[in-house]
Amino acid sequence: MITILIFLSSGLFLGWSLGANDAANVWGTAVGTRMIKFKSAALICSVFVILGAVISGAGASHTLGKLGAINELAGAFTVALSAALSVFWMTKAALPVSTSQAVVGAIIGWNLFSQSAIDMKALTKVMGTWVFSPVLSAIVAAILYFAVLALLKVWKIHLIRLDGITRVALLAAGAFGSYSLGANNIANVMGVFVESASELFTSFNIGSVFTLTGVQQLFFLGGAAIAVGVYTYSKRVMMTVGSGIYHLSPITAFVVVLASSIVLFLFASKGLKEFLVSNNLPSFPLVPVSSSQSIVGAVIGVGLAKGGRNLNLKVLGRISLGWVATPLIAAVVAFVALFIVQNVFGQIVF
What we know:
By secondary structure, the protein is mostly helical. About 75% of the residues lie in helices and about 0% in strands.
């Protein structure tokens, strides 16, 4: 068990990095606009991230497994560590980098090192979401923005009451977003370990109504690591997302969080996909979408809906640079790290 935990440590580190960086994508707007206190956001985020990871985390991890079925614990350890280091360096620069891109880049590095064939269909599907998800978030956010404006004109709520309703709405949207983040992005944290480590955990029953499988235990550990990252290091990035790109009012902050959460949920919900397929309707692929791209897309959507005059293009440029550099850096780091682990430490990595 000690050996397993040592190899899982890089995944837990990656979970910490994701919590430090990607929690800002859900709560940054609410915290940045001073509507929700950081401690409240961190507590709710931690609870719902773990629930989302354990209950609904299996779907997106399946697609990631197609991209690279890492069959040795030492290989999975190195890939997760490489992705985590890439995310950590970006987080130190206060950039909302994409953990999904870091993990995919590191898996590609493993594929190249092990000379394994890259599933181009899976890679194309994942990379397609990097373009589609922020665009979809922007569209959803713009629609929600105009819908909320129309409702406010009809209801004519007093400002004091509106403030209270907005805070409750932000909490509800944040909880939904945290659940979606856990369900979608746990694949980034523990997905590379599913092939090699899930069978090492024995399933056990909680009461007589719920069984926690080996994969769900892996996802629980990853969710707990994300929660630690939220508490210890996410505040700086929250302020960048919440106020650096575009000045958001509390109501537009709610719109942004809700739009991003909906997009994350669409790409994570196995039940929704099965429902759509069973009714011969088009469905979304179960892919670990970048929550960073989703929230930034939503912020841009609201900004454009309001005329686009106050968008901070300089910050957007820095963020976009991080998105392009992250998978490339992670792939190179993974390749070099795998060489060192195999040839210096004598571990089997594939």
